[in-house]
Design goal:
Blueprint lengths: L32 H15 L3 H14 L4 H13 L3 H14 L4 H13 L3 H14 L4 H13 L3 H14 L4 H13 L3 H14 L4 H13 L3 H13 L3 H9 L5
Helix pairs in contact: 1-2, 1-3, 2-3, 3-4, 3-5, 4-5, 5-6, 5-7, 6-7, 7-8, 7-9, 8-9, 9-10, 9-11, 10-11, 11-12, 12-13
Length: 250
């Protein structure tokens, strides 16, 4: 049986911050065009992956209009992307203080708590976001990740099902549902979900790794090795290290 680290089940959860850009909320600052201009610049920079510059732009927008909740959310997202998750939570807290009905603030704070391993706090935020806005796939996805991290894989699958219903092209939701099935040792169902995730996102190396794990646990070393090779070609270090340890090239 082949799988990385040569031990039992080995499934990896994808964690990613959902960058919800609340362009419509910028209308709240129509009395301050300069703040809007800087807030829009923050969004453009974040979309380009220039998170430190985005933080500076959002900070300028906030300085011009301290009531602009969207700028706090987007600055929080940028902080999350550079790993300053505690600071991100402070920004989400501020956004919620300004507008307690803003579902995106709860979603992103939930993602931040989940990244820190504070899953119960994350679930509470996702629950609140669903109460406020029930048709956002990212909310169910985030709650599913949090529940899965707590070992509640059945409930996680239910959340991923809902995320997929709302966004059938969400590769991460299929991938994470596959992880949940794999954790329950339902490997055939896991493989189906990894297949779909790869169909939607052929560059998703983790899906190849975890499909390889599932194949390995089913005793199909050939398919497992093929998947690890594909993941290694995409730059997955776990797959590369495993293949090196076996003297297998890619």
């Amino acid at each position: 049986m082949l799988h990385p680290q040569d031990k039992g089940k080995n499934f990896t959860i994808l964690m990613a911050f959902v960058f919800l850009l609340l362009m419509e909320n910028l209308a709240l600052a129509e009395n301050n065009p300069s703040a809007i201009e800087w807030a829009n610049k923050c969004i453009r920079l974040a979309n380009d992956g220039k998170y430190k510059e985005a933080i500076e732009a959002c900070s300028t927008a906030i300085g011009l209009d301290p009531q602009l909740a969207a700028a706090y959310i987007n600055r929080g997202n940028a902080y999350s992307e550079i790993g300053n998750v505690r600071q991100a939570i402070k920004d989400y807290d501020k956004a919620i203080g300004l507008d307690p009905q803003l579902a995106a603030a709860y979603i992103n704070r939930g993602n931040a708590y989940s990244t820190l391993g504070e899953q119960q706090k994350a679930i509470k935020d996702f629950d609140k976001a669903i109460e406020l806005e029930a048709k956002v796939a990212a909310t169910y996805y985030g709650r599913g990740v949090a529940r899965g991290s707590l070992g509640d894989h059945r409930s996680a699958i239910g959340d991923f099902n809902k995320a997929i219903e709302l966004d059938p092209k969400a590769a991460a939701a299929y991938y994470s549902r596959g992880v949940a099935y794999g954790s329950l040792e339902e490997y055939q169902q896991a493989i189906k979900d990894f297949n779909k995730a790869i169909e939607l996102d052929p560059q998703l190396a983790a899906a190849y790794v975890n499909r390889g794990v599932a194949f390995g646990n089913l005793g199909d070393d050939h398919k497992a090795t093929t998947d690890f090779k594909n993941a290694a070609k995409l730059g997955d270090k776990k797959a590369q290290d495993f293949l090196k340890s076996k003297g297998i090239g890619w």
